[in-house]
Structures are given as C-alpha cells and as structure tokens.
C-alpha cells in the first residue's frame, strides 16, 4: 500500500490550526443559480428517468445532474462567482420536493478553490426554502450553515430556472 502525500498547505493548516479552542469566522454569500435544462448547452441534464414521473405532478424519482453557473446577478451574463456541481432528485410523492446534493465551488476571489457542501430538502414550490450547508473545503474547512433559496424566474415550458440564494456559513 502506498502512502498518500498531503498537499503542503493542507498539512500546514492541520498542524497550525486554531480549530481547537478557536473562534469561527462567518461569511454571507449572495448569488443566482442558473438551472438550464433547454438549449444547445444545458447546465442541467436529466440522467435518471422515472417510470412514474409522467404520472405524477412531482416527477417523483427523476434525477438531474448539474454543473450550474452561480452569478452575481440574475442575468446569465453577469459576473460568474462559482458553480453548483452535483445533483437533485424529485423525492416527494405529494409535494414537489427535491433532494439537493451539491458542491458549491468558488474558482476565484477570496474563496478561490474552496467548496461548500449543500445537502437537503428543497420544497421547490414554496417561496423560501432553507437547506443546510454541511461542510466545506479550502477556506471553508469545518463549515456549517444555511442556504436560503427563492425562485427568481421559472419557465414552465422548458423547466429553466434562476434561483436566488443567500448563504450564511461559519467556518474555521
């Protein structure tokens, strides 16, 4: 069995971390999640069809893989701040509720190379939805927090949506 080498900066962080007895930092993030199922270059692709999806209002059992842009504003051409990479699946029989499993990746800026892990229930037809942030990497090591989602726009024909997110996260 070979020994896995750690990246020096990670090894140094673990050696010098003030996590033991330290105080967490907090960050508030605001961005727009662009879920595009239509067109030549979709950022969301249905990967698991459901044998009952067409018989239910909720599309129960359907799974979608995403690599959605996160932007500073609701316009798709506004500044890119990150990407949401993961999946969501319709998990509700009677209410449209999605199981969200995503890494929020930040390629530039103060959180460059860092991720936040979002895992939770998204009751998509409710005005505001709250989902937990359960961890992170890079700047966001040992992160926990909450993401509040609000649908900004939805095209019922294509399924394309823009969702506004406010995230409050604590980390060490």
Short description:
It contains one helix and nine strands, in the order H-E-E-E-E-E-E-E-E-E. It has one helix at residues 8-16, and strands at residues 25-35, 44-48, 63-71, 80-90, 98-106, 114-122, 128-137, 144-154, 161-171.
Compile the SSE list and pairings.
Blueprint: H1 8-16, E1 25-35, E2 44-48, E3 63-71, E4 80-90, E5 98-106, E6 114-122, E7 128-137, E8 144-154, E9 161-171
Antiparallel strand pairs: 1-3, 1-9, 2-3, 3-4, 4-5, 5-6, 6-7, 7-8, 8-9
Account of the 3D structure:
This protein has 172 residues and is mainly beta. It is built from one helix and nine strands. It has one helix spanning 8-16; strands at 25-35, 44-48, 63-71, 80-90, 98-106, 114-122, 128-137, 144-154, 161-171. It has an eight-stranded antiparallel β-barrel with strand order 1-3-4-5-6-7-8-9. A hairpin with a 5-residue loop joins β6 (114-122) and β7. The protein starts with 7 loop residues before the first helix and ends with a strand. The mean pLDDT is 90.
Average pLDDT works out at 90
Coarse structural class? mainly beta
Distance between the termini: 33 Å
CA-based gyration radius: 18 Å
Tally the beta strands. 9
Helical percent range?
Answer: under 10%
Order of helices and strands: HEEEEEEEEE
Which stretches are poorly predicted, pLDDT < 50 over at least 5 residues?
A: none
* Anisotropy-based shape: globular
Order of neighbouring strands in the sheet with most strands: 1-3-4-5-6-7-8-9
Count helical runs.
1
- Please give the largest β-sheet: 8 strands, antiparallel, barrel
Q: Could you tell me the strand content as a percent range?
A: over 45%
């Amino acid at each position: 069995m070979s020994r896995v080498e750690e990246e020096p900066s990670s090894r140094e962080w673990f050696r010098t971390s003030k996590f033991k007895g330290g105080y967490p930092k907090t960050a508030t993030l605001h961005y727009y999640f662009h879920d595009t199922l239509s067109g030549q270059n979709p950022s969301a692709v249905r990967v698991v069809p459901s044998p009952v999806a067409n018989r239910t209002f909720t599309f129960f059992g359907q799974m979608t893989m995403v690599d959605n842009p996160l932007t500073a504003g609701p316009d798709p051409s506004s500044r890119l701040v990150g990407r949401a990479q993961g999946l969501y699946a319709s998990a509700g029989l009677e209410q449209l509720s999605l199981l969200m499993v995503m890494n929020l990746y930040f390629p530039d800026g103060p959180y460059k190379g860092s991720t936040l892990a979002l895992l939770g229930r998204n009751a998509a037809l409710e005005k505001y939805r709250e989902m937990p942030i359960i961890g992170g990497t890079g700047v966001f090591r040992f992160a926990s927090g909450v993401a509040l989602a609000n649908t900004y726009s939805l095209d019922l024909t294509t399924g394309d949506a823009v969702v506004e997110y406010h995230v409050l996260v604590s980390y060490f």
